[in-house]
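just leaving the lab so this will be short. below you get a single protein, a line of residues and a line of whole numbers that encode the local backbone shape. id like you to explain what the token line says about the fold, in plain words if possible. thanks a lot i owe you, the record is right below:

…
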Amino acid sequence: MGRDLGLDGVVGHFTLSSDEASWLRNKTGATRLGFAVQLKFLTWRGRFPKIRMELPPDAVEHVAKQVGIAAAELGFYDFTSRAAKRHRSELRHLTGWHECTTTDQVKLVSQLADVIWHDERREEQVRTELLRQMREDLIEPPTAAQIDAVIRSALHQADERAVAEVAARLVRAEGCARRLDALVFTDLTGRGAPVDGDAAQDDEDDVESVLADIKAHPGNVSLNSLLDEISKLKQVRAVGVPEKVFTGIGVQVINAWRARASASSPSHLRRFAPEVRHVLLAALLFQRQREITDTLVELLNSTVHRINARAEKKVTEAFVAEFTRVRGKAGLLGKIAAASLGAPEGSVRDVVYPAAGGEKTLKDLVAEMKATNAAFARSKREVFKSSYSNHYRSGLMKLLEVLDFRSSNDRHKPVIEALALIERHKDSSTTYLPLGETVPLDGVVRKDWKEFALHTPDKGPARVMRTVYVACVFQALRDRLRCKEIWVAGADKWRNPDDDLPDDFEVRRAEYYEKLNKPRDGKVFTAQLQSEMRTELGALDTKLPKLPWVTISGKHRNGAIKFTEPEPQKEPKNLRRLKKAIRKKWGTVALIDILKEAALRTGMLKAMAPVGTREALDEAKLLERLLLIAYAYGTNSGISSVAAGEHGHSEEELRYTARRYLTAVGLKAAGVEIANATFAARQETVWGQGTTTVASDSTHFKAWDRNIFTEWHSRYGGRGVLVYWHIEKGSMAIHSQLLNCTASEVAAAIEGMMRHATTMQAEGNYVDSHGQSEIGFGLTRLLGYDLLPRIKQINKVKLYRPGREDEDTYDNLADAMTRPIRWDVIENNYDQLIKYATAIRVGTASTEAILRRFTRTASHPVYQAMLEVGKAQKTIFVARYLRDRDLQREIQEGLNVVEGWNGANDIIFFGKSGELSSNRRDQQELSVLALHLLQTALVFVNTLMIQDMLADPEWADVLTDEDKRALTPLFWMHIQPYGEVRLNMGSRLQLAHPVPQEPDPEPAAA
């Protein structure tokens, strides 16, 4: 039998109405029960059950009670008999449901294309919409092959319709189609005079070069990269794709067109029909224009930061060298140190003054250091101005010509006016800005720069130093850009922050509140939060005197809270023996065979669809190539190395398939498939009940640095990128992200919880200190899940009071407590808080975009409200954490799982010493996602191996509680990741878990 539905599901879907009950009058025994069960299954799933095993046992019991027949009688009802078929015909007549005809299929294709043509190309979502339409029209699903045919036909019609719509808009833009063709054709008329072979080849190379330049990724942070990206942006704009040509067309559709154009050479694009070619190229240019604009903003930010950092480094080195040349300081320091150690109880005047040579010497030293500090700041500003004037000025001024900076806040209007001012005088060579100009200073020139930027002559008004002022403007611009108070027209990441919020919030406010499970009244929300604070603080206050691991006192030197970490858990005794038994039974298994087994058992690689609309490659060959490509990227060994193995596929074939099939979207979908298959395959007797919490943390990968996103990481001590993982208790990754080293881990943690797309219901998130903040606590409270961090400096944490009336309530916690929460700030901005949380939930903005706007704008009222929510939620968590030893161990164990996952990275990602050997961001992301896929495949197969082994009677009672607690499917002592790649599709691992069959289509429940 199937799985139980639960009381709500049974009552909602398997309760007979009075009319339905009347249809049973002439039926008795098993026939009566079978007829009733078929009826309710039809109304529940939109189809009839094929076998009794599909029926939930509790649903059968519920129906049996209603019809007065014992549930066991259903065993005598044959769902494949002629009587059952007759019953289905009768039910169709009674309910209006009917089998899917050819006419129905044609109608469904047309209806489906009407719904999806403008914004949907994901096959699973299209399938869901098709099954919804069939339920609405009371049509029983046809065979799986017919369903696939309907979906393919609808997708084809949808794409043709969308292409026709956009192509018509391009035709209306004068000369646009011709300029698009110029990107791929050397002779637009086709009637040009014949040219010799060398000249023709030169023209072809020019066409290739222009399109290749537009597609090219940026180099590292430098003046040349800045100038190259400006040139690219001008080339893209010169084509003149209308700004609104893709209005009403979804991002998914545009991305699909762009991917086809990116994967096609000019010679391939020339073979397409003109309207298709124009749309693909327009999509490429539309997306590249936004990406290049974003890149220019990032280059601006990085360049200004680099000028500042290099100025500080240069001046620091100079001052250190100067300091070491001054005689006597080192000896003086030694005398003072020796005298202090010799008389530690003495006064400074009696001990230090004589050793230093008197009070005057110390005063002179203080005066010298103060002068040195001022000189340091002046020298740093001088070097900054010099670097800008002598090297970067030309690039930054050209950048102002191509970017349109705007602000919706009048407070930052001076910076916008300053940009206009310096652009007007970009060709000037004068020392000062003209006297007639109104020069914005407040909000543009920082206080410590004003004496440097302003020159006051003996006679006449103060003058503004032009080059110094321009340097100040770019610093102010960078500061405002990073918090999105100034934004850039035509950008994506750096767009107007108002576009990050859902534009239908006013219309769908009630729905959005319901989705977040939040009350409409802000006072109700704050009352709930306040009540939880009082409960947790009261529980800690009561239990604190009896808790041996925590004390709270103002006498502690490093914070009021003194906390002792939990003792390590007992070492499991039998897990190493279990792993050895697995290796003995299955031998040493090649990593490529692990991936192959997972692919054949889950069908995960079917999620990797081609970027084109049609593909003639044999399915078996395609599967082999995808396995080899995923292995090449996931181990970092590269396609050239893998192509040399025993499998019958050349390097050229593998590279062609990678260009056509290997996408970030496809790899993510494959990872989701294997995670879901693992969750479904787990046996509760081995792994316990499914968890609702995941642990997340980052790890550092070295990477090539001739690009703008590889950065130095001070904690890891080297250049590279971060990969942020979300791993559930059973060592299965549900999400991964490639991040810059300076990216917010708080944002990454929230993004993974919101976007993981697996069937797991994630309700809690274990993070390390870098993954938590007060803003993080506030957002996670609004988004409806628990943030469960390990806070390293918990001794310094302050607990907030629920209200002013609680001033004297928590005596035992008094030394760790601070001011009350400002509930009025939350209530006054409650609707905006829900709006920002909704933006993250529905994906109109990334979490990082929201946090960027908040974390650098302390005066923002919504930021202040979010902080208050976060402080209240953090107080609730800390109070609970300090008194609950089990929660402390739970968080530690969860984070240990992530550490184990990071350890496996080094084993699997072995190629090129684990360094991401590409300067292209998309290629680095593909490598990380392929690594994700390989490790999840390993966890999936190991899960099946462990279950097979523990099913042996010899292992029935071997594992202790400590063993079961520490049992993990993430181990690799039986894996061979290295060596020549040999792919044999006929060789399989002998595992008891059945290979899943292609599922029948099943509409979602009504």
Remarks:
- Confidence is low (pLDDT under 50) at residues 190-195, 995-1006.
- The first strand starts at residue 98 and ends at 99.
- The CA atoms of residues 272 and 278 lie 9 Å apart.
- DSSP finds 38 helices and 18 strands in the chain.
